[in-house]
Amino acid sequence: MTNLEKxxxxxxxxxxxxxxxxxxxxxxHYALMVFGYNRIPIVSWLxxxxxxxxxxxxxxxxxxxxLGGHPSLKIGTLLETHQHDIGDILxxxxxxxxxxxxxxYDLLKLVEGNSVTLEEYxxxxxxxxxxxxxxxxxxxxxxxxxxxxxx
Length: 151
What we know:
By secondary structure, this protein is an all-alpha fold.
């Protein structure tokens, strides 16, 4: 990789770190705002997503330092919508995950053919994010609906 490509990769990895850290905050907040009969399994799922986002942020930060960069101390955009219906939470989650997925695709485009390590990392994370998006999409469907959820 050229120095410019390394710098661009560091910038994208820092953006990924920031987005994943925002996911930690969002999912933690969402877990605190769930009420009703299904609270326990939903809170457990949200807590799991918060932990996964933290692990993803740490991993992106490790790649930043591997490339000789400085991990960001910033956090991605946080917007309090005050919408805490489970459907609203899941739709916000779709938006968050889609933005993060786009950053992983940006990384893949940059490193493809230049760094096997970063290329494999980007592909692995894209697989995880797309699988997570599919899971959330299925949660937004009404029982028996086959067609993917769309707004």
